[in-house]
Structures
1.
Amino acid sequence: MKILHFSSHYRISSGIVNQIAYEKSASEGLKDVQWDNVIFSCQGNNAPYVIKKQYPVGKILNYVLSRFAALIWLAKNAKRYDLVILRHNLGDPFEFIALFFIGRYVTMHHTLEMAEARTLTGAAGRIQSWIERVLGKRILEGATGIVGVTREIVVHEQARISTQLPTYIYPNGIDFTAHPTLADERDTIPRFLFVAAQFTAWHGLDRVIAALAEARTSCEVHVVGHCSVEQLEAMANDPRFICHGELSIEQIRTLSTNMDVGLSSLALERKGMTEACTLKVREYLAGGLPVYSGHIDAALPSDFPFYRIGCPSLEDMIGFANEMRGYSRAEVREAARPYVSKTEWVKSLANWLRTLP
């Protein structure tokens, strides 16, 4: 069986690149399956599965030209595959046009598109919302099946159409070999690591800022990633916040060695969601770092001891950090392995794809 996982983006984030890298690595062990990953992008990574099409023109025209390049590539190559996994982009008209060049396909979803569409503002936002409401539905109706990273997302997509399609929950996972166990250099000061490419409203950094403002207990919160000017100003007067800006993977690993807990998204409801399956949680756990989060993780058992769900208060965060000091990095890592390793998820998805009519 030949499978193509295809996606197209204006700017490709490190998170998407990592998702595909882990999937590509995991797919190499599949029997009787050729699994190819292709990403079109105007800007971003130079990985071998990324086709970067950047033109010396303005942003909008660059976007249009890169999408046409993606369509031409699909027209030449898509029919060589038995099935295409089409990563769905909110309100993307070119995705609908792509259907004319591919055969059987399933859609892949990482967010609640209609809930997110309702948050879009301005003329461009209204147009994108209309495209998602009308063409997004048509894309779903033509699919052979629906794949989502959480149960909540799968139910949301199925509810958008009247036809009952086969569905599959495909949580994010990682390549464990790419994430060695962290050295354990924890000391008496509770330290928290909060990593994001860019801190948006649903990451809930403002809630951590508010939690620390309410209590003067000694601790450190290390913030890694792009912060807005407003966020930086809000943290500037509290020395317990240490802002590192953007760091490489190796720099984050080095920083993580003396951390007690990794922080995940703490305001996911602002995105209309109650559960997620983020790569960052998997990377924390693979290194042996317990996680404090504000949402359900779709792949972890509700009683998983190294993933605490809470509305951030400094007392609760520090209490969890102190509790986790009774466990080694290796214990956290091995407990998480069955739930966050990409290898088993890819194998299971491939088996499900084989069953589709």
2.
Amino acid sequence: MVLAYIMISIGSIFLLAYLLKLITSIKEEFILPSFFFKEVLLYVGVIGGLIYMLINFSDLVVFMIYKKPLNITLGINTSIELEFKGKNKNEYLKINSIDLVCVKSQGHYVEINYIDISNYQLKTVVYRLNMKDVEKIVYHSSSIVRCHNSYFINLNFIRSLISNGKKWNVLVDHINAKIPVSQSKVYIVKEKLSKLENGLF
């Protein structure tokens, strides 16, 4: 993700330089006011480019300090709103998909682990929902996968995928315990992790 950010920033600089060169050539061909092209467009372009890079640089700093995923969209929607509505009174949670760490089944309840954006600390709530309900909620998020009958995980928080014989587990940021991966889900997790590492989402 950091590499993807750097590539986007460098690409933006080269694109800006190309556009300025193109605009200058158009100005020479059609004899348009030099003030408009040399002053206004130059300042707007440079300032706009700097603001864009500063905004994304702040995301990079947050990632490096808090291990919070970068909010950079690379062709696939990486962040959507998730609404969890439990069956008991006052069970309601709305978060961005990039802040969800994992969901664990607990019988007729689910344990939702997410990052509280007010302090970037892990927070846990338990709602009366089942995994089918959760599947419908996270269905459109490309970074959240069901790795086991009892778990959904956010690929952005996975540190490593490890095997012990035929048993597979993932180590996840902010979660102390190993999270199991079903044999039938190993290929899906590996494939999506590979796409994430290559900046495909």
3.
Amino acid sequence: MVRTLNWVSAARSLADRLRASGDISSRSVYEAVASTPRHASVPTHFNNSGGVPTLWQRRTEEESVRWLEPIYSNTSLVTELGSAEAVDAGWHGVPVSSSTQPSLTARMLEDLGIEPEDDVPDAGLGTGYQAALILKMVAGPDRLTACDISGTDAARDRLEALGHHPRIIEAAATSWRCQRQFDKITFSFGLPYVTDSMTYRPRISDRRPHAPMRAPPGKGQAGPRAGVCQWGVGR
């Protein structure tokens, strides 16, 4: 069914739109978005149909276009509902997990300026889509370490189905101590402050005084520019 709808064309069209809007400026991010099947990371998502309480429509591959088209639009997708309850016309529940809006993901990756030889932690693995993009930009799977507080098994399976085998750890990024040095750091959740566990000692050969760190904008976001801050930490 997905082959019939041609996800390759849809992914390249998404990359084209993000480049036209200015969210993508580098060839590396463009090629990553254009060649990564976002649908592989979002087997199910929920569409907001309004109402009080909110009525959600569950979309799966069996629904063909209604499932696939939102995935390759510049849209944040709810992927999991807490306290989910099936009702006659759909679902009730509270969103607890989502696939980040592609334009925001693209801007974070552009700001990081990931190079093939960079070692990168993806904190907040989620669906695995951002990790799949990063794996297109670095020299090999050993360059990426991903972590999340839950759902890592499903994300690992999705990445492995795409031929990716990065290091994946189930842990809280704000308290987990990696004992490893990184070049760029990305967080896929609102980051209220920088904890000691996020401070990494820089490589001796690194001439830069600080390693770039990126997190999406959110309430309580630290730093001069929400979402694109560079804190004075090592890596």
